[in-house]
Amino acid sequence: MPLLSGRVAIVTGAGAGIGRAEARALAAHGAAVVVNDLAGRNESAEKVCEEIVAAGGRAVAHEADAADWATGDALVGRAMDTFGRLDVVVANAGLVRRSPLVAVTEEDLDRQTAVLFKGTYGLLHHAARRWSTHEAGPGDHRTVVVTSSSAGVPGGVEEFSVYGALKAAVATLATTAALELAPHGVTVNAILPHAATRMDAEAKGIAEVPGPADDETHLDSPRHVGEFVAWLVSHRAAHLSGQVFEVSGRAIRLWRPWGVAAELPGTAPWTPDVLDAEVAGHVYRTRPVGRRIPRRP
């Protein structure tokens, strides 16, 4: 029996890149998929549905802006109306706008917040409302995967202040939602995916995406992310919740939440002189840590 036989999934941002790979992988493993992306694009949800159906799978397109609160409700409704159930939510829709902090506009901030956090939260909210009011059947496994980024966990990527902060929030959302939804038998995990996609190329200033998207021998192919997500939402990974996984090619890393890096013992009342000595003795890093992604011509 296929890994995801009888399951129904929603994948947002699935018209291209990682979302397309996730939708195709879920369908290849037996799930029926509601494929979401914006309307009016060359990389469309309709085209991905056609690819899935041509390969013998089941899929329906729902073209709408994942940033809109109502879209989450509509996607849950589309899954129920078309396939009669909802088991899996993969919140992947995103965008990247690289900009120095001092150059970020209010429009940049609002749009990125809407797509990266509000859209993810809204879909999770509407799915959770459905699941919390309808008991799972015997053997059912309801699960959510949200898409964070290494720009958010561990973070510290120059010129990605908005994107990084929102992706960190998405990872925190996964760990919090995992606790809240556990009584309803719902698992929630986050991924930090790395793959050669159009969005990634644009962020790095690369003219063309390196490597064919469907070439599984290419270490940067989105297919590796898709296969991991297909496994993560299956019964085989039903014991996992509140986890944050980095997926880079065939390498998978488990990340933990923030930890204490240093502690000042506070053996005397704080004064400027005592703080000078304690910080010098216990906090060694005096410069911000982080990464810089080169802008390529």
Features:
297 residues, alpha/beta, Rossmann fold, 8-stranded mixed beta sheet, 8 helices, 38% helix, globular
Mean pLDDT: 90
Helix content: 25-40%
Q: What global shape is seen?
A: globular
- Helix-strand category: alpha/beta
- End-to-end Cα distance, whole Å, is 49 Å
Write the CATH architecture name. 3-Layer(aba) Sandwich
- Specify the biggest β-sheet: 8 strands, mixed
Oligomer: single chain
The counted number of beta strands is 8
CATH class: Alpha Beta
Q: What's the total helix number?
A: 8
Domain unit count: 1
Question: Might you state the CATH topology name?
Answer: Rossmann fold
Strand percent estimate: 15-25%
The CATH homologous superfamily is called NAD(P)-binding Rossmann-like Domain
Q: Strand order of the main beta sheet, please?
A: 3-2-1-4-5-6-7-8
Low-pLDDT residue spans: none
Q: What is the N-to-C succession of helices and strands?
A: EHEHEHEHEHEHHEEH
Radius of gyration: 21 Å
Description of the structure:
The protein is of the alpha/beta class. The chain has a single domain, classed as Rossmann fold. The protein is 38% helix and 15% strand. It contains eight helices and eight strands. It has helices spanning 17-28, 45-54, 69-83, 106-133, 161-181, 198-204, 223-232, 272-282, and strands at residues 8-11, 32-37, 58-63, 88-91, 142-147, 186-194, 244-248, 251-255. β7 and β8 form a beta hairpin. α4 (106-133) packs parallel to α5 (161-181). The chain starts with 7 loop residues before the first strand and ends in a 15-residue tail after the last helix.
